[in-house]
Amino acid sequence: MRPSRAALPALAAASLVLAACSTPDYKAESVAQAPAAAPAPPAPPVASRMSQRVEVTGSSVSAPHGYARAPLSVYPGPWVFQPPGADTFPEAQANKAILVEEQPVSTFSSDVDTASYAFVRRQLNAGRLPPAAAVRVEEMVNYFPYTYARPASRTQPFAVTTEVMPSPWKAGNQLLHIAVRGFDIEKAERPPMNVVLLVDVSGSMGPQDRLPLLKQSFRLFADGFRPQDRVAIVTYASGTAVALEPTTGQDKRKILDAIDALGAGGATAGSEGLQRAYAMAERHFDKGAVNRVILATDGDFNVGIRDPRELEKFVAEKRKSGVYLSILGVGAGNLNDALMQRLTQSGNGNAAYIDSLLEARKALGEELGSTMFPIANDVKMQVEFNPAQVAAYRLIGYETRMLARQDFKDDKVDAGDMGAGHTVTAIYEITRAAAAGALVDPLRYGAGKKAAASAKAKGDELCFVRVRYKLPGESSSRLAEQPVRAGTARKALASAPADQRFAVAVAAFGQRLRGEPQVADYSYADIAELANGARGSDLDGYRAEFVKLVRMTESLGKANGVGQP
After folding, report:
1. Residues 180 and 235 in one domain
2. Whether residue 176 sits in one domain with residue 201
3. Please, which pLDDT band fits residue 451 given cuts at 50, 70 and 90?
4. Do residues 366 and 238 share a domain?
5. 103 in any annotated domain
6. Contact 467/180 with Cβ under 8 angstroms?
7. Count of CA atoms in the C-beta half-sphere (13 A) of 453
């Protein structure tokens, strides 16, 4: 007898309870997944497992302990549970407004990663809001290409431009937009690449959105290889193996065959794979080339060096040899984004998240020049605010990139890196000095009056922007600096350039997704309107896609019965 349609959710729930009771450790990422080689941990007592509750609501299931809340059909094929909500992200409290009289200097490391935006997009397209910790506002803003002013010459690797404009979400406040753009390298001038692809082929990589997607991505990557480029492939699962010895771009057939032969199965020995990949890159090191390890994984490092600090130390030590590390993250359910971020920051590289073939085309095709060819290392930014002009400031994003003031001049302190043609955007929300009384009561004993009097001598400077960086191969940093004057402030947001307005819209979206109170009254509809009016030429459609994403997020909130989210 066939069950009625109404009985299906109850039957599904009952099946899940039985599955949880009988196989609580089952890592069923895919029905085609190879059996794990590593022994399963002991099962919890049956009584405790039986007490767990399963709920089927809408398109999601709340499962017993050991299983994650996940959509029933994000990808085609039979649906099975992901392992526990094992996606991990760097935890950091959102930046708050800081009084200039108490702390006039803000210092942070540049960031050109884009992983957060792609992960957030995947979550929203699947019909669920992302975890707040997964939303890094600076990575969302820096995901998009901008046409900021180019550097006048290569004697300085990048140009810095600033804009001051009204805040769209807080009347009376202003936004300071800082744009950095590096010089680009023509394809004919790009140095050779010496790349080792380090590919996670453990059992968890079996689903279509992991290794199969990476294989398609690598084929796109290989399409751009030149005869002078060299690539090797190292794989890791229960152990490590060399899938492709260093091969020049002339032999693309051999490279493509090695990519096609990759298959998933086994446990995860990520640290052992790193060691072997670095050894191969160092063995074939070319001083005139870009030497890089590209790690592709769902982020599950569970065999070998277990301590993230030890992995960081290993990667940081290896970068001194001139071999950098980049990471491509895939999948969801056990994505260790926190570790990915820490390793790429230690390895002078960047992190990207591949959620589709279009994203692979962007990360490994269109942006190959900017991600593969560094023009500046340890890029740090510092802004000193004038207390005579600014009462308080708030850096939007960069919570995981904050530096101490003294780190700015310390060339031993690692920071972000910039590739050819890359852009970096930072946005501050500032409260002008005239509104200081609305923030705090004045000090009884007048501390800060001397500093304010001294600041008045600087005229109408709002702040002073400094950028410190190292040229590749150099150990001593260089300095670029410029003032930002109050008289340059735009009277209306609409008069600001489209790039700056669009970046502000993305920053507002990221803050709303994180639940930051500063934008509580600035709706998703407002954000979509601002972004739509700043789309510009948008040749690749990234901005149009963003507008649709914002509108979909608004609809998602209404569909879940929470009104305007």
Report:
1. no
2. no
3. low
4. yes
5. yes
6. yes
7. 5
Nearest CA to 115 out of 322, 342, 324 is that of 342
CA gap 516, 93 in Å, rounded: 10
- Return the residue matching tokens 């950098």: 324
Euclidean distance between CA atoms 251 and 291, whole angstroms: 19
Residues 477-499, mean pLDDT to the nearest whole number: 96
Q: 142 and 202 share a domain?
A: no
Final residue belonging to a domain, choices 314, 340, 372: 372
CA pair distance 399, 403, nearest whole angstrom: 10
The DSSP code for 406 is G
Please answer whether residues 202 and 300 qualify as being in contact, where contact means their C-beta atoms are separated by less than 8 angstroms. yes
Indicate if 204 and 341 belong to the same structural domain.
Answer: yes
3-state helix, strand, coil in the chain (%, to 5): 35, 20, 45
Domain boundary at 71, 86, 109, which?
A: 71
- Count Cα atoms within 13 angstroms, Cβ side, for 481: 10
The total of other beta-carbon atoms located within 10 Å of residue 150's CB is 13
| 56 and 167 fall within a common domain | no
| The two structure tokens encoding residue 240 | 């490590």
Structure tokens at 281: 């890159």
Q: Is residue 521 part of a domain?
A: yes
Is 17 within 8 Å of 62 (Cβ atoms)? no
- 409 within a domain of the structure (yes/no): yes
Segment holding 270, helix H or strand E: helix 270-283
Rounded average pLDDT over 31-49: 37
> Which residue's structure tokens are 């500063």?
518
Residue 7, token pair as written in the block: 């009985």
Per the structure, the count of domains in the chain is 3
pLDDT beyond 80 at 370? no
- Judging by beta carbons within 10 Å of its beta carbon (0-12, 13-18, 19+), is residue 366 exposed, middle or buried? exposed
CB neighbour list of residue 522: distance below 8 Å, 6 or more residues apart:
168, 169, 508, 512
**Long-range pairs for 313-316 at CB < 8 Å and ≥24 separation?**
313/346, 314/271, 314/274, 314/275, 315/274, 315/343, 315/346, 315/347, 316/346, 316/347, 316/414
Helix (H) or strand (E) holding 164: strand 158-166
Asked if residue 78 is part of any domain, the answer here is: no
Same domain (yes/no): 267, 347: yes
Enclosing H/E stretch for 510:
helix 498-514
**DSSP-derived 3-state class of residue 22:** helix
Please indicate, yes or no, whether residues 227 and 363 belong to a single structural domain of this protein: yes
For residue 295, what are the domain limits? 187-372
Q: Which residues neighbour 166 within 8 Å (Cβ) at sequence distance 6 or greater? A: 173, 174, 175, 490, 491, 492, 493
**220 forms bridges with which residues in the sheet?**
none
Whole-number percent of the chain with pLDDT over 70: 80
- Model pTM? 0.82
